[in-house]
TrEMBL record:
Residues 120-473 form the Glycosyl hydrolase family 13 catalytic domain. One of its GO terms (molecular function) is hydrolase activity, hydrolyzing O-glycosyl compounds. It is an enzyme of class 2 (transferase). PANTHER family: ALPHA-1,4-GLUCAN:MALTOSE-1-PHOSPHATE MALTOSYLTRANSFERASE, GLYCOSYL HYDROLASE FAMILY 13 CATALYTIC DOMAIN-CONTAINING PROTEIN. This is starch synthase (maltosyl-transferring). It comes from freshwater metagenome. One of its GO terms (biological process) is carbohydrate metabolic process.
Length: 574
């Protein structure tokens, strides 16, 4: 029932599954709260946002201001100090010479996750490729956790703080795939890591080729010493050889002839993988998955990249993630959900901390602007984006030229538009050859074979530039926030400009989206949105150390043939 003072249209508020679910936040992240408040007559209203902790104790009050006089639309900016569950209420009052009227809204939940849920630089490699050796006879000796650990310092030196591993479990033998997804493997083909399980075990076991559980624990410890967290793949599917197939045949889909159906994503077929059927023993599957997550958490893993979560029931994830959050709120789940936006958003509302996104395919100025505004404002209450430049499955068409400038500018966009971004090993070496023309798969994909790369003496590498980008991100809090992205007008479709500000930390980014030719344009900085007075400001380029005297209308020229595709500048605010 409405109160005497009508408080409506509260934002952000997430109604999902018949209840309000928490707005996403991290400690000290600023969140704008808005609402409309009215009362009969001509009396003046005042309002404030009151933030409570999980026990109901008031921890802060924030006066709301009338953003556009006459609209009754009120706003305030709040933040919370620590990880945990909170809720906020909007309270309003109206006082005249003869009465005081009070009103309040419902409770709206908010959850502050640890900062890594919002901010992170992710790197992906296959442990079996790191330290792998090509022998004189052409055969390849697999890498292991011991050899892969030697690669961790280089990953940390590039500024990555999350190292994601594809599945590390035993790999099935039945219908094993060969190189380039061949159906006729040789004895030396290692199989696809996502075809999980054989006689050595399933999701709770280590592939013996990679080592032992102790080796894995040492690998995690080595990463921690270098400031890197390990993210494991959680892929709820099996090979035909997985122990579940024999112990729980009801967990799988059956064809009319009684055989188990393998996975398909037309036109792709995955003969080596069985999907899970969640209908017949939901509780049994849920309990087993929770057990598996608990096991790896006990080994020091606090981040999981979930494979294809959109092919499993959303309520299953809400159930599982709620259980894990109640026990281990530090654990973070990234949804690998390249699917319909409605499903991606539903998974975020169900509890996923982050998600893969469409950034990988957004290339033009208008696409990037539109998508950037969507993820930073329209969906930021429930959907945290992680911008990946490539994955083992996705070799985007714009990378297939191998032009180093494309690799550089895509890394800049991914690492500065959002606080979390990622890249798959080989990106820094400009790997780009497609399996077939017009397709987005890599030739000699690492999914099907072991890669031997020359990290010691590469012919060319983007690694120093990647390291510089991640250093800039780490040293500038504005780049560690999502909701502060503002695009500014340019007179060229080839050049995009945007800003991010956090307190006195103001960063401007200008990118030439044309990797081949010099482009110049006027950039029209909105000084009011930048929070700057006057018409001129000093800009320090964080990439080359140059200082510029820019104005609200600044001509910018970027020439990739001269090694200059981007400006990332810090503005002296005071």
């Amino acid at each position: 029932m409405i109160s005497r003072i009508v408080i409506s249209d509260i934002s952000p508020a997430i109604y999902f599954g018949g209840e309000f679910v928490p707005v996403k936040a991290v400690p000290l992240e600023e969140i704008k709260i808005s609402a409309t408040a009215v009362i009969e007559g001509h009396e003046k209203l005042t309002a404030e946002v009151v933030v409570h902790n999980a026990t109901g104790k008031v921890i802060s009050r924030h006066p709301m201001v009338d953003v556009v006089p006459g609209t009754n639309r009120l706003e305030a900016t709040i933040s919370v100090p620590d990880v945990g569950d909170y809720f906020f209420i909007i309270e309003a009052d109206s006082t005249s010479q003869y009465r005081t009227v009070l009103g309040s809204s419902e409770k709206y939940p908010l959850r502050a996750d640890r900062t890594r849920a919002l901010v992170g630089a992710w790197y992906e490699f296959f442990p079996r490729s790191e330290g792998a050796v090509k022998n004189a006879d052409g055969s390849i000796t697999s890498g292991s956790f011991t050899t892969a650990a030697r690669r961790i310092p280089a990953v940390a030196a590039m500024g990555f703080d999350v190292l994601y591993l594809p599945p590390i479990h035993p790999i099935g033998v039945a219908h094993r795939k060969g190189s380039n997804n061949s159906l006729t493997p040789t004895e030396s083909d290692p199989g696809v890591p996502w075809a999980i399980g054989n006689s050595d075990g399933g999701h709770d076991a280590i592939n013996p080729t990679l080592g032992t559980m102790k080796d894995f624990e040492n690998f995690v410890a080595t990463a921690a010493k270098h400031g890197v967290e390990i993210a494991l793949d959680l892929a709820l599917q099996t090979s035909p050889d997985h122990p579940w197939v024999h112990a729980h045949p009801g967990w799988f889909n059956k064809r009319a002839d009684g055989t188990i159906a393998y996975a398909e994503n037309p036109p792709k077929k995955y003969q080596d993988i069985y999907p899970i059927n969640f209908d017949d023993d939901y509780e049994g599957i849920r309990n087993e998955v929770v057990r598996i997550i608990r096991l790896w958490v006990s080994k020091g893993v606090k981040i999981f990249r979930v494979d294809n979560p959109h092919t499993k029931p959303v309520h299953f994830w809400q159930d599982v993630l709620a259980i894990i959050n109640s026990e281990s709120p530090e654990v973070i789940f990234l949804a690998e959900a390249f699917t319909a936006p409605a499903m991606m958003h539903a998974l975020g509302k169900a509890g996923f901390h982050q998600s893969y996104t469409y950034f990988t395919w957004r290339t033009s100025k208008w696409e990037l602007t539109d998508y950037g505004r969507e993820v930073s404002t329209q969906t930021s209450a429930f959907f945290r984006p992680n911008f990946w430049v490539n994955t083992p499955d996705i070799n985007p068409l714009h990378l297939q030229s191998g032009n180093p400038n494309v690799f550089a500018l895509r890394a800049v966009l991914a690492s500065t538009l959002t606080p979390s971004w990622g890249m798959y090993a080989g990106y820094e070496l400009f790997e780009h050859t497609p399996f077939k023309e017009g397709g987005e798969e890599y030739l000699d994909s690492e999914k099907y074979e072991i890669k031997v790369r020359d990290w010691a003496q590469p012919k060319k590498t983007l690694a120093p530039f990647i390291s510089q980008l991640n250093t800039i991100r780490r040293e500038n809090s504005a780049l560690q926030r999502l909701r502060n992205l503002i695009f500014h007008t340019t007179d060229s479709d080839a050049i995009i400009a945007y800003s991010k500000r956090d307190g006195d930390n103001l960063i401007l980014v200008v990118v030439n989206l044309d990797p081949d030719f010099a482009q110049g344009t006027m950039v029209h900085w909105d000084m009011q949105l930048l929070g700057l007075s006057g018409d001129h400001f000093i800009a320090l380029d964080l990439l080359d150390g140059m200082t510029y005297n820019w104005s609200s209308h600044t001509f910018v020229s970027l020439d990739p043939t001269q090694g200059k595709t981007v400006h990332i500048v810090r503005v002296k605010v005071s």
